[in-house]
Structures are given as C-alpha cells and as structure tokens.
Amino acid sequence: MPPEIQHHCGLFGIYGDPDAVEKTYYALYAQQHRGQESAGICSSDGQEIDRYVGMGLVTEVFDRQRLELVRNPIAIGHVRYSTTGSSAHVNIQPLLVTYSRGQMAIAHNGNLINAKLLRDSYEDAGAIFQTTSDTEVIVHLMAKPDHIKHHDTLAHVLRHLQGAFSLLFLFPDRVVAARDPYGVRPLSLGMTAQGAPVVASETCAFDIIDAQYVRDVQPGEIVTLDRKGISSHYFVEPSECRPGHCIFEHVYFADPASSIFSENVHIVRSAMGRQLAREAPTDADVVIPVPNCARCASMGYAKQSTVPPGRGFTTSHYAGRSFIMPSQGQRDLAVKMKLNVIKEAVRGKRLVVIEDSVVRGTTTRGKMGALRAAGAKEIHLRVASPPIRHPCFYGIDFPDPNELVANQCGSVEAIREYLEVDSLHYLSLEGMLSCVRFAPDHYCTACFSGHYPISVDEPVTKFALERHQLRMFE
Q1: What pTM was estimated for this model as a whole?
Q2: What tens digit of pLDDT does each residue of 13-31 get?
Q3: CA-to-CA distance for 118 and 162, rounded, in angstroms?
Q4: One of 9, 296, 435, 444 is an active-site residue; which one?
Q5: Which domains does the chain carry?
Q6: Using an 8 Å Cβ cutoff, are 16 and 196 in contact?
C-alpha cells in the first residue's frame, strides 16, 4: 500500500564548489523522502549547462563514479513526486531550455493554481509545450519578449504566478532562488565549510555535506548566488507578503532532523504528541507509534502521559518505493510487506497507537486490523493532527475529497467505526497550532480547516494539463 499522502518535491542548489555535482547528489539523497518518482541534476562550468536526469530513486538514477568526474562548480538538483502532471520522463526536473537569453534550468516545489489559465493563453498564441507540468509555464513567461524587456525579468514573471512556489533557477553563471509571497513551501540558505553558498528545501540536506544553515529564503524574496556571494531583493513589497507556511510540513513531510519555518521538526512533532496526551489521555498498557512519521509524536505522548512507550511494528528496509496499487487486496499485501506486527509485544495489551495523520483511512484500518489479529486487547488510536477534510492545491497530492475518510464519514465516531478501533481522538486545530512558534495566521491549515490563504477560483486537479492535451485531439 502506498503512503496515503504522497510527497511532493525537494530542491538543492550550490555555487562555487569544485565538488558541486557530487554534493548535489548527496543533498538530493538526504531529501529522497520528498520525492521518489524521478531525480535530476543540472550543472554549469560557468558557460554551458549540462543535464543528467532519470526516473527512479537518486541511487538508481545517478552513477556516482560518473558524477565524480563532473567538476562543474555550479549545480541545482531536484527529486520529484508529481503534484501537477503525470509521472513521466518529459516531466523530470530540472527542466533545461535554451531561449533568446541563453540557457536556463528550473526546478520547482509547489503548485501554481493559475497554470492552466496561463498555459491556455500561451497555446492560443501558438506556443508549444513539451511537458504536462505547471513548471513549464514559467519557462514561457521568462521567454516572452514583453517580459524580457523589463529590467528585472524574473521579478516581473514571478508577479504573474499564483499559488505555492519555491523555485531554483540555474543560469550558466549563477543560481537564483525564489519563494512565493506566502512562503508555503520551505526553502533555506546555507554555507559549506569551504564558503560555497547552498540552498535547499530542507536543512537535512546541509547536514550531509557539512554545510551550516544561515537563514530561510523569505516569502517574496529572490536570492542570487554568484561570484559576488549572496545578494537578494524582493519581487513584491515586503508589506504584501503574508506568511502561509504549510503546517503539514511539520505534521508529516519534513525529516525530523530538519529545521523548517525556523523550527526543528522533531521538536514540533514531540510537542504535538504532548498536546495530544493532554487532550486525550488514555488508560492503557503501552504507547506505540505507527512507523515512521509518528515516532516523534509518540515519544511526546508517552512523556506527557503515564503510559510507557513501546514498539508494536517492525519496518522492512527493503520494501523499495511505494506504488499506487489497483486493488485493495494488493494494498493489504503491501502493508504486510512494509510493516510487520511484533505479536509478543502487543498480545493481550491495551494499546495507545499514535498516527501522524489519517487520509483515506484504508492503510490505517489495515494496520489496526493487523494489531487486532495479533491479539491486542484494546486499540485506542490517537492522531497527532486534526481530521483532513479538504484537498490541497499548493503541492500536496491529497486524493479527491470524496476519498478522504473524514470527509466521507463525517463524525469522529463514524471514522472510529470504520477503522474498527476502541476509541479515536484527533489533535485539535488549536492544539496543533499551539505547538509551533508563530501565530496561527502564519500557517496554512486549509486541508484541516478549509481556509485557503491563496484564493482558488477554479480547483486544480493533478492531471488537468493531461486532460487539456487530450481535448486538443478530440
């Protein structure tokens, strides 16, 4: 069974290091959890950009010995999970193009909610698109003559975009990073021990190459890494920037070792677990996490409660990538292949089971059934986030709203009956927001609350551009 929530994308860029390509490889490996469909690296010797991409995991796509021979000192990289456009070779990033200003590579984390509108207008004017990714729209905006004539072309182009975007551009002589005015997706700056500036989606990428975190790229900011060092400016007035950081990065996506939105992920998840224990104490024998994302919250829950921590599952390190399974029978088998219950640890026990989130509910139901079959006396499920009732349009591949168990079942009691557990409690929205540093209005909680910080006039689906292409030939 695939994870109920699919990941999105991870970015990395570096300027002025003879081992730039090799370090990009390791930084992408550290961010593999953010995207497992494809990987790519573009690098430059200062005059010409090369591209090396493929479908699969970082270790499957790249030949490390070959990478070590590439001494280009400038590079950007990308690991992808498709949130707009299918998982296909044409959509692998970074995209590399040649236009009137020369070569340019681009890598993107997020979703543009006005991509279809922009693409329609360009195709009506005769533009030809090679991919079904929303990222290619940015390429056409950059190449448009009316935009090129502006003194700051990139700033002018970024003002046309709506939605969530953390972007890396590679020009032959520089790396440029940009973040949308809401800062929905994380993007951080760092510095290697040799003094080379780096930028990444998560700070765990810095750890693997012995770089130090410097600061976040600010919402609405453009940061340039070149021979002069690091420089920056805003493409909108700072007063127009209103943070809308994705709270789900802390709940599920980011690596516990990373600091995103100025806070360590492990610390935040542990705080969510403690708050969950305050809101939903339980008389039980042991607290166990559902691996792997719930481990931090489970530690927090056990520490706050009087129930001791334990372990109820083992995880397979050889399961490989998770794929969408066409039948429920295959999904159930995939769960068994990836997670195995430690029967002696749960038999006859009253369990508090900690989950980070529940989306469709099918995998969670399977896990709870496995615990019951192993002889668990009671199962009290505690979820370290609120019920997910709404789709995400900003870069998370949530299923159709009709597939969300909280949306379908309605009440928590109905969800409990579906999951076949003895009790069920979700962390409250207020409780979740009390565990992070900034004020509640600094975070996007749309998937929980239905309040979208960036207004969505027309809901965007993952395959909207594929359907558009099919209509062209009808």
Answers
A1: 0.90
A2: 999 999 999 999 999 999 9
A3: 10
A4: 9
A5: 9-244 (3.60.20.10), 263-449 (3.40.50.2020)
A6: yes
